[in-house]
Request: fold
Amino acid sequence: MTDSDILVEVRDLKVHFPIKRGVLFDRTVGHVKAVDGVSLSIGRGRTYGLVGESGCGKSTLGRALLQLTPPTTGEVSFDGVELTTLPPGKLRAMRKRMQMIFQDPMSSLDPRQNVESILTEGLQTHGIGGNRDERRKIIAETLDKVGLPRWALSRYPHEFSGGQRQRIGIARALVLGPELIVADEPVSALDVSIQAQVINLLDELQDNLGLTYLVIAHDLAVVRHISDTVGVMYLGGLVEEAPSDRLYREPLHPYTRALMSAVPVPDPDVEDRRERILLAGDLPSPANPPSGCRFHTRCPWAQPTRCADERPALREVGGSRVACHYAEQIAGGELRPHKVQVEIVRPEGEGEKPGVVSAPTEPGSFV
Amino acid sequence: MTIISGKKREKIDRLAELAAREEERGVSLWQDAFRRLRRNPAAIVGAVILTIFVLVAIVGPFFVPYGPTDTMGIREGVVRVGQGLIPGHSAEHWLGYDHQGRDVFSRMIVGARQTLLVGVVATLIGLAVGVLIGGVAGAAAGLGGRLGRWVDTTLMRIIDMLLAMPGLLLAVSIAALLGPSLTTVMIAVGLVSVPVFARLLRGSMIGQSNSDYVLAATSLGVRKSKIALAHVLPNSIAPVIVQATLTLATAIIEAAALSYLGLGNPDSAVPEWGVMLADAQPWLGIRPALAIYPAVGIIITALGFTLLGEAMREALDPKLRK
Amino acid sequence: MALLEVDDLSVTFARRGQRAVRAVDGVSFSVDAGEVVGLVGESGCGKSVTSLAIMGLLPKQPGLRVGGRAVFDGTDLLQLDDRSRRDIRGRDIAMIFQDPLSSLNPVLPIGLQVTEVLTRHRGMKGDAAAKEAARLLDRVGIPDPKRRLKEYPHQLSGGMRQRALIAMAVACQPRLLIADEPTTALDVTIQAQILELLKDLVRDSGTALVMITHDLGVVAGMCDSINVLYGGRVVETARRRPLFREPRHPYTVGLLGSVPRLDAGRGERLNPIPGSVRDLLPWPDGCAFAPRCSRRVDACVGEPPQLVLAHDGRSYRCVNPAPVPAPREEEKR
Reply:
């Protein structure tokens, strides 16, 4: 790939969220390292799939790439323009070239806007289409592209089914004529039969409009289906990046192997035959990630000291990039998996301590 | 394989067509809420009470049989307070006379207008100030970054101070500052409800600011000020409107309480239900009805606003929508 | 004889001023002892309502009507009074839900919640109950069980909570376990752990399992027989391999065509089912899938499709089923 073919380049991106505690004054007691040093590049007209489990930082990475969440450090260049240092006005103007599709089509649409108003907002913001008729024409074309009927224009999001709502979300992104679309879990909130419609739609749009996608999902089958290149994330870092087919044929990182073997395949013959790599325990907290290789606490191939001491860098191994000290030995069968002791992991932030009830606001009263 | 009869096919076609015709215009959330409001019996009862009240308040004073300040009972010698004589209802005077020989029915009708005025103006004062402070604080906290959080904290501390002061004390100090009058009552009652509106709107706006559609608007490149006004505020205002309806009820009661304490209009010639209640106090032993009429008026009106308010809360609650 | 025999189960919700909704419409299936049976379908297909109706857990509200029979070991569960139903629940039939956090009491330690089950159904007390509770937690793979007993649900991760819930469910060695989307809220690697655990439990204890899920991959890996639901009806019933190898109902065919498979090549287009479940039905009696069906014929909209019984315990509700594909040679991997 030459430089001009690369649309997006992310270099050593880090997003750290401060954890604040304190009775009177908030003190920063630590950081959640949601994204911790990720570098990747996406070719023009290609699809990069980002896969990982909840809490691995894939959504944060997508938002930081679009500058919706300010990155802590690192660089994001879009078509040669560095986004992290762009002044707010210029960044807003850039936004029409890069758009986003959200997971929950209901919550990502303003319930008080009808479809026409949803689609017009972006056009007005960027001054696309001089007058009302022109804008109407653009909107009508966009509706056709995503397969929504004309009567949708006067209707409100709550009147549509999940699949149609997601089409509205796609239309909103598409109406500005973007080059890059970041799709964050675009199908995971949809029913199985609707998922396929949306996946096919995304495929078609890419073929017809030459779009570049960053697809973020937890479902490896979906990501692999839609992507040219797949990046696997674990606890804020990329552990493996490979062309889609190669990743399936030859997963190199132990985590990729485990993930691959955990995805159920709707075929009894395959299900009965395949080997399972069951990972022990849960994902460690990103506020307090393990030292060295982030995965060594759950890795069945972990080796003494080196895995716990030294964080492996992404390195080229036969066409893939993998962050594992022993990738070749594991692939060659020199290292055998062993049993892993389960460590208990405390959930962060979900489920407050019981018994704390905040006082309700009562209307002020004289009497 | 069976072939469906022509009649059945016709029926199916018609049904399908019907289903398609329904698709013509969209139903906004407000329209949807209104539809559900109409189906709620409590809302109907509340609305009927309020319609009657408002009609009486607006039109009633033009049709009262006697002047509300006309002390005809004294003049005609029918009312002799010294002898404990305050006649009750009769054919000419439906609710009888008060202690100054005025017609109670006429005073109730004219008083309705004053009471409504106090309630509405007081609530509007509270709503306006509360929405302004809460809106700025909510937008600043939700979208404004570090500076925004500072603005929000400052505004909210002011609200906390307002909340910490007992309502009565606040009203008395305002009355001391402005002198007792109807305006004083309205301002005092309004100011006391400011913190409720402000905190409600702020909390609601902060919640909405974290939603995906705000992120979506940001990613479209829409300015923050426009996002706050066009997206966050309209989606946060529903609970405030419900609260305003409920506040109307308490405002009327509170205004009556302030008038009762003598902070209201010192000229009791202009009837107001709270003032009438206060005036009736010395004569409770002779004619308790003088206190009961305005009290019942206040209670029924407050009930009407409360019923409607609660029904609106239900209708606007997105969780209860199917 | 079957352990659980559900026969013509129907659940209707009627609301004032609205047309009654048939959430479940004549669902029949059976579960043999030790068998794993899947109920598969998308949201709104009635799979969860079916399980709640069998357990008598539907919220009591005016307008709710439950018809048909659900015979468990000779007793019709639908005819039982609340008390005897409660006795059966937990002791003979246990249930696992999708969201482990809301199924556990947040203000009680895990240990207390497990021992409560043991006390109620097995009459165990004090040390014996605590010991048994620790054994159960250990059995479901919770590390350091003695200490976990004193902890609260919010201190455990989602996967561990689901394990705790499974421990409570199997505490009385029930003969039937109903799992309603037990892994939907969990990550894939954790899902794999939980599924493996469930398989293990079923194998070791001979408990029958009803697995309710939307994920065809999950049923492919563990169910002996599968019921596919659509619009409140069972549209196809088959053993695992025949169902996936030669689906007959167009909906089953469509579902299998819509799922991106991990082992398929990049760029193979999916064959989605058009439309959505919410599509309005102008024909209340006919096949609910007809509006989205590519094999629709006139007869589909007239009357409810009859159950067609085929060989080896297979049945489907379709007047124009997909043809049986020509027998394949050993399929390529």
Summary: Chain A is about 30% helix and 20% strand. Chain A has two domains: 3-249, 252-346. The CA atoms of residues 14 and 73 of chain A lie 5 Å apart.
